[in-house]
Amino acid sequence: LYTIKFEQLQEVRLYAYMADKNSAVTSAVSELPSHQPQLTSQHLTLCVQQFRDLSPKVSKFIYDNGQEYKMICLNGTIPMPYKGSTYNIPVNIWIHADYPNQAPIVLVTPTKDMQIKPSKIVDNNGRVYLPYLHEWKPRGYDLVSLVNILCMEFSSSPPLFARSSGAPPRPKPTYTQQQAPRPPFNQYPGYNTPPPSSSNPPIGWNFANQPPQPQPAAQATQQHSSGFGNTTLEREDTQAIIKSSMVSKIEHDLQQRYKIFIDRYEAEMNALQQQEQELTAGKEQIAEILQKIEEEKVKIRETIELFQTKDGELRDFLSQHQRESEDNMVDQQIEPKAPLFKQYLNLYAEESALDDAIYYLAEALRNNVIDIQVFLKNVRALARKKFMVRALMNKVVSETAKCEIK
What separation in angstroms does the CA of 94 have from each of 139, 293, 322? Predict the structure, then answer.
């Protein structure tokens, strides 16, 4: 009977605890001017239900330029299985007002007894870099999967270790807009948050004026010898979290492979579609060329028929006038009958011969066949003779004009 009442009491406490968490989620979402409040509230509720040590609240950020912005902060611890034990890792997950269009920002926040252990996913200031954050998409990516992947990655490479007793406390990091970007590491690409705008606050922030975050009671009361707090989750919940983390990791890997597979086949399909377009265009060009060839064939047939007709006409004409052409000499047909015209024709032929002689003398001089003196002597004689021929031709033309007038 006492056992049943104790279990009922535990259920009531759990119900009240989750009601408080849901109320905190509703209050934080209503206070922050979120672009998608329903989706943000849904993701936050699922996250705090599965990871009970995380609590949402709205915090102010004071930037180097003096501007203040509000963001939802999931503050608390997440379980990290490591070498057969489970440890609590204190983190802050900052959610922008533009969530889920913009990826959250994850920071490891060590206590005074802990120190950050830089690795390929955590820098010296505690900021976490993951492919899941770098490739964040509004659809298919959520806070639960993010925290599960954080548990898996921290299990492989713990981000914190116990501080020695004499070591000074590590100062809180201050991020500025001019901070140099994290150098790329071997496996994960550097995660660069988009630049600030009116709706999205800048990535550079200052934690100097932020009040210290309270640690969960479970972490404050239970400490492990290595500096991590013992988990307060039951063994069944821990196994479920580990299983969920592994499933999320596998889903992430499958999504990456599926993306590579789809990108490759999309590229092949685009290449095939381009080839199909080129072949279609080539087919149309070939059809146009064949049509032009048919048109040219028709024109050629018409031309051949015309030539054959003209050839028959010429053959008939030649057969009729063949006897007349044999009786008449060609030279006699072109010889002028008038003496003046005959004289003019002879003078024109003589003038053309003189021009040819002068031309070939110039070619001989150019080819060094004759010297300049011989060239000038002969050209002078030929030019004098050509002048006389031209004068006589002009006189014949004038006499012929007089005869036509008469």
Answer: 19, 73, 113
Condensed to tens digits (0 to 9), the pLDDT of residues 38-83 reads 888 888 888 888 888 888 888 876 655 777 778 888 889 988 888 8
Q: Please classify residue 244 by burial: count the beta carbons closer than 10 Å to its beta carbon, then call 0-12 exposed, 13-18 middle and 19+ buried.
A: middle
pTM: 0.43
**Do residues 227 and 162 make contact, with C-beta atoms less than 8 angstroms apart?**
yes
Residue 159: partners with Cβ closer than 8 Å, 6 or more residues away: 89, 108, 116, 117, 119, 121, 122, 126, 128
Q: Copy the structure tokens of residue 145.
A: 């999967």
Question: From the centroid of its chain, how far is CA 147?
Answer: 32
Local structure of 115: helix, strand or coil = strand
Helix then strand then coil, in percent of the chain rounded to 5, is 55, 15, 30
Retrieve residue 41's tokens. Answer: 């509230």
Q: The dihedral of CA 27, 28, 31, 36: what is its sign?
A: negative
